[in-house]
């Protein structure tokens, strides 16, 4: 017997799988470091989110408890993924890794612009 | 005790991770939260208030929809046998002034597939964003400012501590 919840969970798993797979394929196919950064960071957020939601539907132990856990996982993912991507991209840029030649527009100055305000002093 | 709202959120996270939804769990979470907030005090530079919850909620909705939409666009590019991309580094001039709102905007840009925040101008006049593929730089700029920056600016007020 397959229940509706199991079918829905399978669909969500497949969606998550598809986006994660596409992210990996993008990683291989894209031409340079910066374009490659795009594939895995985004695919993971949507992919892992759907997988976490699929888990909510099938893991026993109270749907509210598991849902809260899944939502926490998704929230942390959305908080941490962009920071990792940002740090890698920034490091690559200041390390002088050249973008691919299809990159025609570059509005980013090579030298830092303006005065560094050093951020706000701590509390 | 200085940030009851943040502390309550931390207590909720504790409850979610710990599978417990009683008053007692909340109190344990709240106490642990106080400890965490105390340790992190040195990093806090501004007080953040949501002044227009409606705008904030709509922004979240627009954001989630953009994430899904853009994921599909990137998937299309990945699957296209020619990989038709024209990447670009573009500058997004900033109207936002505060740490919190700028950080949120930068993260939203990164989480929306197809755009990735690379850096911020040292004087905070602009964010530098890498676009996976765009023919119309002005459109990307306008869309980010209209969909993300303006609602953020309207919904959230920051003041120094």
Q: Overview of this structure, please?
A:
The complex is a heterodimer of chains A (123) and B (161). By secondary structure, chain A is an all-alpha fold. Chain A has helices at residues 4-29, 33-58, 63-94; one strand at residues 105-106. Chain A has one domain (4-94). Chain A contains three helices and one strand; from the N terminus they run αααβ. Chain B has two domains: 4-44, no CATH class; 51-160, no CATH class. Chain B contains five helices and five strands; from the N terminus they run H-H-E-H-E-H-E-E-H-E. Chain B has helices spanning 4-18, 23-40, 53-79, 99-111, 137-155, and strands spanning 46-50, 88-93, 115-120, 126-131, 156-160. In chain B, helix 3 packs antiparallel against helix 5 (137-155). Chain B is globular and about 60 Å long. The mean pLDDT of chain B is 85. Classes of the chains: A mainly alpha (123), B alpha+beta (161). Chains A and B meet through helix 1, helix 2, helix 3 and strand 1 of A and helix 1, helix 3, strand 2, helix 4 and strand 3 of B. Strand 1 (105-106) of chain A pairs parallel with strand 2 (88-93) of chain B, so a sheet runs across the interface.
